[in-house]
Model the fold of this input.
Amino acid sequence: MQRGMLGWGEGTALYIGAVLGPGVLALPALAAAVAGPASIVSWTVLLLLSVPVAVTFAALGARHPDGGGVSTFVARAYGPRAATCVGWLFYAAVPVGVLAGAMAGGEYVAEAFGLSGSAGYACAAAILAVAVAANYVGLQVSGRMQLVLVGLLVLLLACAIVFAAPHTETAHFTPFMPDGWLSIGSAALVLFYAFSGWEAASHLSAEFAHPTRHLPRATAITLVIVGVLYLGLSFVTVGVLGPEARTSDVPLMLLLERGFGSSARGLTAAAAICLSMGAVNTFIAGAARLGAALGRDGALPVWLAKGGSAGQVPRRSLTVQAVLTAALTLVVALLNVPLDPLMRATSAFLAAVTVAGMAASLRLLPRRTPLWYAAAVAAVFTLVVMAFSGWLLVLPLTVAGCAALYWRSRSGRVAVDGRTTQTEDLPVAASVTSSPSSMPGSDRS
Done:
């Protein structure tokens, strides 16, 4: 298999950017609005859940590096039809998710400089445009940009925690659970957006120069940094802001103002741009490679497969993502759709993808090992989170249904090694085990 060009530093930056995304800008307040101080429990539970999810995806990515990510794992475990459904789920979720991330950053920038709501949409559009342009150039350029962004945002978030912490008041933690135990589950669904980057990062596994060495290292570093920052931010958001945390749209700016005064507005805008750009960059990169892999495997039109080999740029798939995101941005701006439903819809999609990935790992990983048990625990916890999606589960179910119909409409025929073959006659995930040179569209873009 042709290897990618990402080193562990660039890969770690892409991972951190995916997981430590723009959800930090709005989610502490959204979770506090649902569960009050008990939202800290939701943060803790999801952080613990993300450990087996991250470790499992790292193990699968090291064993089966491929741009298909979770859909590749599902193909190997359950066959191409199931993989098509899972691939469509993530491909459909990305335009919604990156728009939500860009909007979170745009709203912060607009608030920091006292601009109108339309300026926030313009800033969101600019964030999306820069991320798409960086991915058109190539993942190496995108990865280097990510190193700079991640360094800045980690520094800014650490400063927000350290300088706001002295203003913590114990009275803000009572009553601890004003809305009951169920509120913790509702808050967990909201917060799932903040822990959903592992699915996006799984599509970059083939881009690492040495997946077996670099993937575990990037995963471990990401878990440590994200864990410290998320728990620190959840604690100071409740302890410092108190009831204000349940009503504010810009909790991070309020925390920075506690520590730095009025000068925090510029820092807030910088943090918002870094957080949004980092996550949007990784999700778009992952979706572009997924689209090429789905085209290669017959789950989407084959012309999307061009540029899908490791080290290449899947510009056709990237263009489709750009068009879908632009269309959705226009609709959201015209209808003035708020941020919360976009984040919840993204969480419902990505929770379904995570469950599928964990189910695949139970077949692919050695049974009765610590890693296998970790995947089982992650699958159960994610199913519980999905249960709180309510009617939003209609969205992933609808997309999965459309994917199944698409697969059936193609009469189960895909191109493999230059000939047309019935997919029912293929071994599981035959297309993902073929060499890159034999795949449709494997010539350089």
Remarks:
- The radius of gyration is 21 Å.
